[in-house]
């Protein structure tokens, strides 16, 4: 792990979390950060079914923008089956019903894409139609950049259709360099080296997201129990009325 470089100014294209310790830990900065916090959870093999359900629920247009072609159900199934959770990082956002409403795939290439340079990680994301407009895509991009940075990755890479305005807007806002070549565009975001604080940030994000998920699961279980009790009461009440009427 690279030693902290707190006295060194961040590179001009570094993401916001690369700022120095004073700006990072200023009360107003911390408050703003955690007020807008979104629980992002790492996904594994046991989540394949939920990932598949999320992607299959995408409309034709959304599938086209996510994969760069009009992906059919069987092609999406093949993609999900081929996810390598030991090499890549897959991140997700769950709603209160524990449904996946946003999924990001951070793919790590086994070798550098550009000779003489470190390997890049490629970012792809999809957000359910009902969950758009809340900045989930940008949050997943920030978390993916943090994860890649902590793995010693030099550059985050995006390959997208030029008409995929939301994706390219996320990249540009993060400071990525975007190049357009006809109907396709590529974006590169140089990442700062990892530091103690970047590893602490990721650990906090991971543990808080796990706590959030377990809390939602507990509340769903409580809700199911209450619904069951209400249903039993309703049936007993109905039987009681029938007995009195007889």
Overall description:
With about 250 residues, the protein is of the alpha+beta class. Helices cover about 45% and strands about 20% of the residues. It has 8 helices and 7 strands, in the order ααβαααβββαβαββα. It has helices at about 20-25, 25-35, 50-55, 60-65, 75-80, 135-150, 165-175, 195-245, and strands spanning about 40-45, 90-95, 100-110, 120-125, 155-160, 175-180, 185-190. It has a 7-stranded mixed β-sheet with strand order 1-2-3-4-5-7-6, sandwiched between helices.
The strand order across the widest sheet is 1-2-3-4-5-7-6
What is the total number of structural domains?
1
Percent in strands: 15-25%
User: What's the order of the H and E elements?
Assistant: HHEHHHEEEHEHEEH
Task: Report low-confidence residues grouped into runs of 5 or more.
Answer: 1-22
Largest sheet: 7 strands, mixed
What is the tally of helical segments?
8
How many β-strands, per DSSP? 7
Q: Calculate the terminal CA-CA distance, rounded to whole Å.
A: 79 Å
- CATH top level is Alpha Beta
The residue fraction in helices comes out at 40-55%
Query: What is the molecular shape?
Result: globular
What structural category characterises the helix and strand content? alpha+beta
Which fold does the CATH topology refer to? Aminopeptidase
What is the level-2 CATH architecture name? 3-Layer(aba) Sandwich
Query: What average pLDDT do the residues reach?
Result: 80
Q: Radius of gyration in whole Å, from Cα? A: 22 Å
CATH superfamily: Gcn5-related N-acetyltransferase (GNAT)
């Amino acid at each position: 792990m690279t030693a902290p470089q707190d006295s060194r100014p961040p590179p001009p294209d570094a993401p916001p979390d690369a700022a120095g310790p004073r700006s990072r830990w200023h009360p107003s900065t911390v408050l703003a950060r955690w007020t807008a916090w979104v629980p992002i959870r790492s996904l594994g093999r046991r989540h394949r079914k939920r990932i598949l359900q999320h992607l299959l629920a995408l409309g034709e247009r959304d599938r086209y923008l996510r994969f760069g072609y009009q992906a059919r159900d069987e092609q999406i199934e093949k993609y999900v089956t081929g996810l390598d959770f030991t090499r890549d990082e897959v991140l997700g956002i769950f709603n209160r019903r524990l449904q996946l409403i946003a999924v990001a795939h951070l793919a790590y290439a086994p070798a550098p894409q550009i000779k003489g340079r470190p390997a890049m990680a490629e970012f792809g994301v999809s957000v359910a139609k009902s969950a758009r407009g809340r900045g989930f895509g940008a949050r997943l991009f920030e978390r993916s950049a943090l994860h890649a940075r902590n793995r010693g990755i030099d550059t985050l890479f995006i390959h997208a259709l030029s008409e995929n305005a939301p994706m390219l807007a996320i990249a540009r806002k993060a400071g990525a360099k975007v190049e357009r070549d006809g109907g396709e565009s590529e974006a590169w975001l140089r990442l700062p080296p990892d530091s103690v604080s970047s590893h602490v940030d990721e650990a906090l994000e991971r543990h808080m997201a796990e706590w959030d998920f377990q809390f939602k699961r507990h509340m769903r279980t409580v809700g199911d129990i209450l619904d069951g009790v209400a249903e039993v009461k309703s049936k007993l009440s109905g039987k009681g009325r029938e007995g009195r009427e007889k």
